[in-house]
């Protein structure tokens, strides 16, 4: 089973996000970078599938040079090799053009299964996984919490609003992860040592036969960014007893806030 | 020339999702601004009884793609039917709900059609004649305005973010001959949490965290039920195995924007706030007066949730009895 994991490096969720002077990007100096949490589930699931069925796990990423850190972490968890597309022309990519680059890499990397995160927690786009599948002409199943591979088919429990659905797809296929799929392992010390010797292939767009102009100009553009007004702490409900506080809260919610 | 607005309706078991009405209402506003028609498209196996309802939310035409092969949402079949329709009719704007299904469908459609997609929009406005979509990024720490180049402009809107407006359109129904193409995905089975209000669509969400100290969420469930709301949970409560992962609110869970969010025994970590900070009114109940959640809540009660929450429920009961 050849498994490809699409992995993006993103700011850690506790990072303070600030807007730069250009108004359309964020300050990156003080940010701590991590593997996108949904892609961590993808790495873990790929490793479990490899452990059960044999094969290898390849991490594929489009991003700046420092993304090698995130790839290295995935290799320390147990993945076999990494491919990083690092090209200035890929920098301003939107979801669709990123998907096009990833699909081009996957066209020359043999795979049976691709696992992506449901979303990257920086752009929160929910787009790249299904788009890669579309470009490769393979099926995708979104937000998977459980999977099973039997013969050349994958059966997935996907999340839908208000329940779950079980779908089956012939391989090769792509699925995206949802919380609940697994608990990602930590990299062990021997894993970290071994990872140092594992290959990370850094390529440009030209290396994968994709001219910069073929990825297409981004169809979506950020024209402004703002920090949403912060929620302010409001009133503490006071009263002589718990009972009095409850009465006052319900009165406020009904008469003033008009939400019940 | 691309023209017109197409809204994709989503139904499950013959019931429209609330976000469908939101997508149609917003689609109607866009169509009025562009001075064009709003068309709704609905896919499924058994749609005769529900299709015409879409006219009440401003659809001028209702395209019904009815076929046994469309009884369940399958990415490949639905993408093919809708993409073929879009290629034929060439709408300028496609709007749909960013539900779980809508996210999957819109992502795949954008790739099939090479069309720009603004995912999970919370507001849509015009600058001159161009659409600007506002969408949260970085777990809601940023609101970004997005311009879309190309056709059609696909707008997937966040549930509960936009207003539903009743406006009658002509609502003429047309049947669409459907060709689902080569389908490889196979539906095996589905299980729905019946009787539960969907977390992302609920007007009220009552959430419990580690302060619940166990899997017994009865006090929370009772209050949620009284308020016709849904139950949510912090990641700690999910990690402890007290609640299913589908209940998790936050950066790695669901994003909710109800009218009323009641956080019980939740400290207010930044990753939790990312999932609920766009709620209209937030109430926090916590026994620690220093809990960070109080600095983000409109109303706070310091106290033991096991004492306070049942008392609130009792008051709500009285109130409901009075109305
Ligand atoms: C990458 C990443 C992603 C994450 N994603 C999420 C996410 O999506 N959602 C999420 O929620 N968290 C998420 N977290 C975890 C988050 O950082 C917090 O650990 C978590 O939200 C804490 O949950 P809690 O508030 O229930 O528990 P705690 O922080 O332990 O707070 C429990 C609170 O209950 C109060 N309490 C205890 N007993 C009572 C009582 N009887 N009555 C009233 N109050 C009581 C306490 O005073 C305390 O304030 C994420 C973390 C990381 C690193
Ligand atoms: N630059 C990238 N490199 C590799 N994988 C990516 C990249 N961007 C997105 N992905 C994958 O696509 C998923 C969804 O991302 P997005 O559509 O950007 O929210 C992520 O969880 C990754 O698996």
Describe the structure.
The complex is a heterodimer of chains A (260) and B (323). By secondary structure, chain A is an alpha/beta fold. Chain A folds into two domains: 2-215, 3-Layer(aba) Sandwich (Rossmann fold), CATH 3.40.50.620; 229-260, no CATH class. Chain A is 28% helix and 28% strand. Chain A has a nine-stranded mixed beta sheet with strand order 9-8-7-10-6-1-4-5-11, sandwiched between helices. In chain A, strands 2-3 form a two-stranded antiparallel sheet. In chain A, helix 2 crosses helix 5. Chain A is globular, with a radius of gyration of 22 Å. The relative contact order of chain A is 0.17. In chain B, a hairpin with a 2-residue loop joins strand 2 (11-12) and strand 3 (15-16). Chain B folds into two domains: 5-175, Rossmann fold (3-Layer(aba) Sandwich), CATH 3.40.50; 199-319, Rossmann fold, CATH 3.40.50. The model of chain B has no long low-confidence stretch (mean pLDDT 95). Helices cover 26% and strands 28% of the residues of chain B. Chain B has helices spanning 18-34, 75-89, 100-113, 218-226, 235-239, 270-276, 305-322; strands spanning 5-9, 11-12, 15-16, 38-44, 61-66, 93-97, 117-121, 123-127, 130-137, 142-148, 153-157, 172-175, 186-192, 204-208, 230-233, 260-264, 281-286, 299-302. At the A-B interface, helix 3, helix 4, strand 7, strand 8 and strand 9 of A face helix 2, helix 3, strand 7, strand 9 and strand 10 of B. The structure holds flavin-adenine dinucleotide and adenosine monophosphate (AMP). Adenosine monophosphate binds next to helix 1, strand 4, helix 3, strand 6 and helix 4 of chain A.
């Amino acid at each position: 089973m050849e498994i490809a994991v699409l992995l993006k490096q993103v700011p850690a969720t506790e990072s303070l996000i600030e807007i730069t002077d250009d108004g359309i990007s964020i300050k990156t100096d003080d940010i701590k970078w991590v593997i996108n949490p949904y892609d961590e589930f993808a790495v873990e699931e790929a490793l479990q599938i490899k452990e059960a069925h044999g094969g290898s796990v390849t991490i594929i990423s489009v991003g700046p040079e420092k993304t090698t850190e995130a790839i290295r972490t995935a290799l320390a968890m147990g993945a076999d090799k990494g491919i990083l597309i690092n090209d200035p022309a890929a920098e301003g990519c939107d979801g669709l053009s990123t998907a096009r680059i990833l699909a081009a890499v996957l066209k020359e990397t043999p795979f049976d299964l691709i696992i992506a995160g449901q979303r990257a927690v920086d752009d929160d786009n929910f787009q790249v996984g299904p788009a890669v599948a579309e470009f490769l002409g393979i099926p995708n199943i979104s937000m998977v919490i459980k999977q099973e591979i039997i013969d050349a088919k994958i059966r997935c429990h996907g999340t839908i609003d208000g329940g779950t659905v079980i779908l089956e797809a012939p391989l090769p296929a792509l699925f995206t992860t949802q919380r609940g799929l697994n608990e990602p392992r930590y990299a062990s010390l021997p894993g970290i040592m071994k990872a140092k010797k594992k290959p990370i292939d850094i390529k440009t767009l030209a290396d994968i036969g994709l001219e910069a102009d073929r990825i297409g100009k981004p169809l979506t553009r950020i024209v402004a960014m703002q920090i949403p007004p912060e929620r302010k702490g409001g009133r503490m409900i006071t009263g002589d007893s718990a009972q009095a506080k409850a009465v006052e809260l319900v009165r406020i919610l009904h008469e003033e806030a008009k939400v019940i | 020339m691309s023209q017109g607005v197409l809204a994709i309706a989503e139904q499950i078991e013959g019931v429209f999702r609330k976000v469908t009405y939101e997508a149609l209402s917003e689609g109607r506003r866009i169509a009025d601004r562009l001075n064009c028609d709003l068309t709704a498209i609905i896919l499924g196996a058994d749609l005769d009884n529900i299709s015409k309802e879409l006219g009440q939310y401003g659809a001028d035409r209702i395209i019904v793609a009815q076929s046994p092969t469309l009884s369940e949402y399958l990415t490949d079949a639905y993408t093919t039917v809708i993409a073929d329709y879009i290629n034929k009719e060439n709408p300028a704007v496609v709007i749909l709900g960013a539900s779980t299904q809508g996210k999957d469908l819109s992502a795949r459609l954008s790739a099939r059609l090479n069309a720009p997609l603004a995912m999970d929009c919370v507001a849509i406005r015009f600058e001159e004649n161009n659409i600007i979509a506002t969408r949260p990024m970085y777990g809601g720490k940023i609101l970004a305005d997005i311009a879309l180049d190309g056709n059609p402009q696909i707008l997937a809107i966040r549930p509960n973010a936009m207003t539903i407006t009743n406006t009658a359109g002509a609502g003429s129904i047309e049947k669409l001959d459907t060709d689902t193409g080569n389908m490889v995905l196979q539906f095996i089975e589905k299980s729905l949490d019946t009787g539960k209000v969907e977390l992302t669509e609920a007007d009220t969400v009552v959430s419990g965290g580690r302060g619940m100290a166990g899997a017994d969420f009865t006090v929370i469930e009772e209050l949620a039920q009284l308020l016709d709301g849904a139950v949510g949970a912090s990641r700690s409560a999910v990690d402890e195995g007290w609640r299913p992962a589908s209940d998790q609110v936050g950066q790695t869970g669901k994003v909710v924007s109800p009218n009323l969010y009641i956080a019980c025994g939740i400290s207010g970590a930044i990753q939790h706030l990312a999932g609920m900070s766009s709620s209209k009114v937030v109430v926090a109940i916590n026994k620690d007066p220093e809990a960070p959640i109080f600095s983000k809540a409109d109303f706070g009660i310091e106290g033991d949730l096991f004492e306070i929450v049942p008392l609130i429920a009792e008051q709500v009961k009285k109130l409901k009895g009075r109305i």
